[in-house]
Write a structure and sequence with these properties.
- About 65% of the residues lie in helices and about 15% in strands.
- The chain is α+β, with helices and mostly antiparallel strands.
- It has two domains: about 240 residues; about 110 residues, Glucose Permease (Domain IIA).
- Helix 1 packs antiparallel against helix 2.
- This is Periplasmic septal ring factor with murein hydrolase activity EnvC/YibP.
- Keywords: Coiled coil, Hydrolase, Membrane, Transmembrane, Transmembrane helix.
Length: about 400
């Protein structure tokens, strides 16, 4: 009997333990499900966050493009305004000199006319008295004197007419000078407005750059970004080369090709540097990860003139992600030169340029020191530019 009771206790204990274990297992399974659900929710949030960051970066890059183009247009407009102002200043200086001369002429004419009038008045009184009290011979002599004074009167009338013309011309030039000064004042106000707009755009541009750079948190992401930029550049160059090929086929006797034999025939160390400055990065230097620079990065003051290294034709003058405002010049014989990080472009697609011609202004599209990104490409492949550039 006692053994039966012990057996029942053992069975009950086993059932209780099994129930407890099962309960723990169910609880553990539920906990795992909750953790899995939470992980899935976190993953969804992360994915949404990544998507939002990507959308934000896309928006920032679009804004960056607009701001760089705005800086380009504002800089170009400012340069045009400055040229017009210089012309106006020269016109105003010329008019000032002319007005000063006319005023001197007017004063001299007044003085001469006064002297003539005084002489005529005095001599006229004397001749009239001679006419009254003289004999016949003296009257004949007086007639000759009278004829002389008639001649003087004609000369006086001519001087009066000259004086009137001088006065009229002086009045017209003063009016013209005043109009030029009004134009000058309006252009100065326009220039001031353009400068403020340019400064504001540059400020927002720097903020956008900071926002973009802060969104890049690891090297792998940066490597991907640089690879994408490089691919965009290769694709752009490939498209440009296709356009060049099509155009050369249509124009077998193209003036450019006849006049420029590419950089291959240019003597070594003969091409001019695109801008004067010191090298920040050289061809082949490590850039990021296993990426290397395909050209030179030359530091120069912002706004410095970028020059074409040789004769050629502009095949691209537009914004390119990773390189900012980019100018690409085709030199013939499958040679191209590329100029990036620009603040403003000064040429348009299709323009023929000469060696040393200004094509752009140095900017800071790389997000750091104002500099120029420069490449030479042969048959689409980047080559070391140094052998072609002068010392």
């Amino acid at each position: 009997m006692r053994e039966k009771i012990l057996l029942i206790y053992r069975i009950c204990a086993s059932i209780f333990c099994a129930g407890a274990i099962l309960s723990l297992m169910i609880s553990y399974a539920n906990d795992n499900k909750q953790q899995l659900k939470k992980l899935q929710q976190d993953l969804v949030k992360k994915e949404k966050s990544v998507q939002q960051q990507q959308q934000q970066r896309t928006t920032l890059l679009s804004k960056l493009k607009q701001q760089e183009q705005s800086i380009c247009y504002s800089t170009r407009a400012w340069r045009n305004t400055r040229k017009t102002l210089n012309l106006l200043n020269r016109d105003i200086d010329r008019l000032s000199r002319s007005i000063s001369k006319l005023q001197s002429d007017q004063a001299a004419q007044h003085k001469l006319l006064g002297q003539q009038l005084e002489t005529v008045f005095r001599q006229g009184q004397y001749v009239w008295l001679q006419w009254v009290f003289s004999n016949h011979v003296e009257r004949q002599r007086s007639e000759r004197i009278r004829s002389y004074f008639l001649y003087l009167n004609k000369e006086r009338e001519k001087k009066i007419q000259d004086l009137r013309q001088t006065s009229a011309k002086l009045t017209m030039q003063k009016i013209e000078q005043q109009q030029k000064k009004y134009q000058q004042n309006a252009l100065l106000q326009q220039e001031d407005k353009l400068q403020r707009k340019l400064q504001s755009t540059r400020y927002h541009y720097q903020k956008t750059l900071i926002s973009i750079n802060s969104s890049i948190t690891d090297n792998q992401e940066s490597v991907i970004k640089w690879r994408q930029n490089e691919k965009r550049l290769r694709d752009t160059i490939a498209r440009t080369e296709r356009k060049v090929k099509i155009e050369n086929e249509k124009q077998a006797k193209n003036i450019l090709v006849a006049r420029t034999d590419g950089l291959g025939l240019l003597a070594r160390r003969q091409a001019m540097w695109p801008v004067r400055g010191h090298k920040l990065h050289s061809f082949g230097e490590p850039q990021l990860g296993d990426l290397r620079y395909k050209g030179l990065v030359i530091a120069a003051p912002e706004g410095s003139t970028v020059q074409a290294i040789a004769h050629g034709r502009v095949m691209m003058a537009d914004w390119l992600q990773g390189y900012g405002l980019m100018v690409v010049i085709e030199h013939g014989k499958n040679y191209m030169s590329l100029y990036g990080y620009n603040q403003s472009t000064l040429v348009h697609v299709g323009d023929q340029v000469k060696a040393g011609q200004a094509i752009a202004l140095v900017g800071s599209s790389n997000g750091g020191t104002p500099s120029l990104y420069f490449e030479i490409r042969r048959q689409g492949q980047a080559v070391n530019p140094i052998p072609w550039l002068g010392r």
